Amino acid sequence: MTFTGEQPPARLNLARHCLSGKPAEKTALIAAGRETERWSYGALEDAVLRLSEGLRRQGVTDGERLFIRMGNSPDYALLFFAANAAGAVPVPASSLLTPREVDFILRHSGVRFIAWDGALPLPQMDGQRLFGPEDIAAMKRAPAGSYADTAADDPAYLIFTSGTSGTPKGVLHGQRTLWGRRPMYQGWYGIGPDDVMLHTGAFNWTYTLGTGLFDPFVNGCTSVVYTGERDISIWARLMTEHGVTIFGSVPGLYRQLLRSGFRQAGMLRHGLTAGEAMAPPILNAWRQQTGLEIYEGLGMSEISTYISTSPSVAIKPGSPGKPQPGRAVRILESGEIGVHRSDPGLFLRYWGEDTPEDEWFATGDLAEIDADGYVWSRGRADELMNAGGYRVSPVEVEAVLLQHPQVAEAGVREWRVSDSATIIAAFLVPQPGARLDEEAVLAFVRDRLAAYKCPKQLWFVPALPRTPNGKLIRKSLEKP
């Protein structure tokens, strides 16, 4: 069993495949925020190629990494595509990362160049070249360059995700990753050139990069993104104002929309969801309240969405759907979902590690496949948690909690608070004689971890459940 879809051409550049050859006057991107910016395909490509040439002149080319330390803005997207067009490797990162977390990524990935918005805090520089707002503005005035002549297997971008070892892992994607997204177009989106896509996430997330930028651009659609202050009422307004036909988000935001009284808006045809499992109560309530469907996808940073429902794949509540057309997917002996290495959507390798030689990539998602081909999740084999769609390692959070001088032991797990919502919970054993203060501990963690990684609940316990060999049994962590 191997990938049966069309394989990518030998020469492929992600930025060129997204932006080149589209109707120049057609609206490609609408960035709504304090002000609304509209970018045609022609203007977007021109800006990317000018920035690309500006980056080249500063040495950002030929596999060099460009770390993007910016808030959610059009410049973030422009710099991502420009770095790729220059033959460099953009490193998109969350604006929520602390300077300590940024420092780890810079050191681990050998980044020499940073694009900075002039606002987000930075760690102590160690020889990196910083491009601030004035530098970026000057690069935009460079003459338009050309796309790098990259091969399909050349690196395209590097994104860091929480690892099972407790430290973030760099997921290196190739230019061919874009080609590997083709099964999603009808296997999840049901997308066409007249669609208008609205995604609620930030550009640093692979879900947003793909669903909010890559796929609409490849299909010649219009993408709508929001860069302002978050308010649940904004989404219905954007849908109506811009004629949105497909809406992409996470289950938690659909739940908020339902609570706000959301009904059918404008030309909306259906919704998409990924990042975490869609609870059947949310899906049923959405159907009743709007008359529309939400098509779910299962994916991860290493391959993005590869299992889904769609307008042509009926929904079975509780299942994320079927493997998309062409995908080679099976259940491995470990019980994990395996994806065959022939799939062009799979990442190249983890940063700092050798290219894997095994035939199947084990996703870490335990599952079963029924007689109709639907996948039924049975949880994670590696205990990674889900925080609003972000994968978070309990080991990473525990390691930070254990740095607190009054914490003797720490255990972290995903904790269900309702049929449709989970949080990160921490179970702490104080040092002998210590009296832990919940708010002080949370403040300690917030200074060291991005907000989405921080526990929302702390419980102080006398001991943690362990095996006879002393291994922590996270699944047995219980509320005292």
Descriptive terms for the model:
single chain, 480 residues, nine-stranded mixed β-sheet
Structure explained in plain terms:
With 480 residues, the chain is of the alpha/beta class. Helix content is 25%, strand content 27%. It is built from twelve helices and 25 strands. The strands form six sheets. A nine-stranded mixed β-sheet has the order 2-1-10-9-11-12-13-14-15, with helices on both faces. A four-stranded parallel β-sheet has the order 4-3-5-6. β23 and β24 form a beta hairpin. The N and C termini lie far apart (49 Å).
List the helices and strands and how they pair.
Elements: H1 14-19, E1 27-32, E2 37-40, H2 41-57, E3 65-69, H3 74-85, E4 89-92, H4 99-109, E5 113-116, E6 129-131, H5 133-139, E7 155-161, E8 169-174, H6 182-189, E9 196-199, H7 206-218, E10 222-226, H8 234-242, E11 246-249, H9 251-259, E12 270-273, H10 280-290, E13 294-300, E14 304-308, E15 322-323, E16 329-331, E17 336-340, E18 349-350, E19 360-369, E20 375-380, E21 385-387, E22 390-392, H11 394-401, E23 407-418, E24 421-430, H12 438-446, E25 457-460
Parallel strand pairs: 1-10, 3-4, 3-5, 5-6, 9-10, 9-11, 11-12, 12-13, 24-25
Antiparallel strand pairs: 1-2, 7-8, 8-18, 13-14, 14-15, 16-17, 17-19, 19-20, 21-22, 23-24
